[in-house]
Write a structure and sequence with these properties.
6% of the residues lie in helices and 43% in strands. The chain is mainly beta.
């Protein structure tokens, strides 16, 4: 910040941020960008930093499961669910949210259902319902759900919406288990769009479709593993994740096939899961961080690009497309600008000074105004280089613009405005104004350049002659920051 004029510097910084957003959309090699996160911890109300689950609800709440219970995040702060709902302060096994807004939360010895309005325990005539470790709640319809309890696949319903007691029944008969013995060790994982239930059973997978069970093992492309997650993508492919494998089954195919990132190995994982981002791409954790399937290849996100190595959970994206990560011992992290922004730091040669104005000199090259001169970004090499126009005067360069003829215009706190024409080795001064912040340097459709200056006010500059003419502003207007044409005869000025 420049003393005395924080607003001018902030405005320029914000403009730079907007410019970067427009210029950096799209995918790039993961090792060439620095990922930025917003980190949530005790200062935000998240009292426990071992995050095991993070599930967005349709109303905008984020439900976060930790080793010390559940927290609800409303976009501003985290509140312990034990405080407002009386839920247990113990390790959370899982959370599931329905489109209706109903939320299921289960612990080792209890299951609760409810919403931001309140929660109630799920009980049968035999007492509290306790899911098998590693099992999931699969909502079916209305007041019905499926789960595995004591390795039995059960369906639950209640006689009326306000009934405190649920009724359970087995979804598998003895003949079915006799035909598929692995079902005796089933853990329910998911339900696909056709209504088929998918379970881990033994060291393979089992499915239940229209009451017909089936075992999927090595013969059907499912290697022996401890399968922990099943997920259906937007195109109807079914993905399965184990400790050492990732397999996928095309819609209606008779076999799974291996499709796993190179990082999947025999190393221990803090999390073994699958998720889908806002564009429908599959995400999974690997020892070095996270990998994303883009339809043709896996792309890795690693600590080299700022991604945390100790990921304990990769959450579903929320309504705004934000990706949430549980990071072992470091709370909950939100990926800023996921899939829309790339961050550039000193790792790519970017100066430690503040960055301001930005303009393209070519389809693969940018010039950035800095606190001391400028730098150029070579997008093909993905590296920052020295200012191509020399050191200029070594002062802050805020406005950087490209003219209609391709020339690059720059203005510094010395009051000097430079122009660098295409093919010329350096920049030439066009006009020198009294020293002070220059926050705007833009050409209109008629080729007139508009300058906003701390000490000279608003000016019109003839690029051909270098003649600058001051534009009269009301006495109380103060320092102009920026202006924009409203029509051919009017211009709006921010001061």
């Amino acid at each position: 910040m420049k003393p005395g004029r924080p607003g001018a510097v902030l405005r320029a910084s914000l403009l730079a941020a907007v410019a970067w957003a427009g210029l950096c959309l799209g995918a790039a090699p993961a090792n060439a960008q620095q990922i930025a996160f917003r980190k949530y911890d005790q200062t935000d109300g998240l009292a426990n930093l071992v995050v095991l689950d993070a599930v967005p609800a349709p109303n905008g709440n984020l439900w976060v499961g930790t080793e010390a219970g559940v927290f609800r995040f409303d976009g501003t702060t985290f509140v312990a669910a034990a405080t407002i709902y009386g839920l247990p302060r113990v390790r959370v096994q899982g959370i599931e949210s329905e489109p209706s807004g109903r939320v299921w939360i289960w612990y080792k010895r209890a299951l609760f259902v409810g919403s931001a309005a309140g929660f109630a325990p799920v009980r049968t005539a035999d007492g509290d319902v306790a899911l098998d470790v590693g099992s999931s709640v699969v909502p079916l319809a209305d007041d019905r759900f499926a789960a595995t309890v004591n390795h039995q696949l059960l369906g639950f319903h209640r006689p009326s919406p306000d009934s405190p007691t649920w009724i359970s029944r087995s979804l598998l008969g003895e003949p079915q288990i006799a035909n598929v013995p692995a079902l005796a060790s089933a853990r329910l994982l998911a339900r696909d769009r056709r209504g088929t239930l998918w379970m881990s059973c033994g060291d393979g997978l089992c499915s239940l479709d229209a009451n017909q069970p089936r075992y999927w093992g090595p013969t059907y492309g499912v290697p022996k593993d401890a399968w922990a997650a099943v997920l259906e993508d937007r195109d109807g492919r079914l993905w399965a994740r184990g400790i050492h494998h990732v397999s996928v089954r095309e819609r209606n195919a008779e076999r799974f096939r291996a499709n796993q990132p190179a990082g999947v190995s025999d190393q221990k994982f803090l999390a073994i899961g699958l998720a889908i981002d806002g564009r429908g791409r599959v995400l999974t954790d690997v020892p070095s961080g996270m990998s994303r399937w883009d339809g043709a290849t896996w792309r890795d996100f690693t600590p080299a690009s700022g991604f945390p190595a100790a990921v304990s959970h990769i959450g579903k994206p929320d309504a705004d497309g934000n990706l949430w990560l549980g990071v072992e011992g470091h709370g909950l992290w939100r990926w800023l600008g996921y899939d829309s922004f790339e961050s550039w730091t000193s790792s790519e040669g970017f100066s430690d000074f503040a960055g301001f104005g930005i303009a393209r000199t070519s389809p693969t090259r940018l010039v950035v105004g800095l606190d001391h001169g400028c730098q150029a970004l070579d997008e093909q090499r993905r590296r920052f280089e020295d200012c191509p126009f020399g050191p200029l005067d070594g002062l802050t360069v805020v406005p950087v613009s490209r003219g209609p003829d391709g020339a690059i215009w720059l203005g510094s706190d010395s009051g000097t405005v430079w122009r660098a024409r295409p093919g010329e080795p350096g920049a030439t001064p066009v006009v020198t104004l009294p020293p002070g912040h220059l926050t705007e340097l833009e050409a209109d459709e008629h080729g007139t350049w508009w300058i906003s200056s701390e000490n000279s006010g608003l000016l019109k500059l003839d690029g051909a002659t270098g003649h600058a003419q001051q534009v009269a502003l009301p006495p109380a207007a103060g320092f102009p920051y920026e202006s924009v044409a409203v029509n051919a005869n009017e211009r709006c000025v921010a001061t």
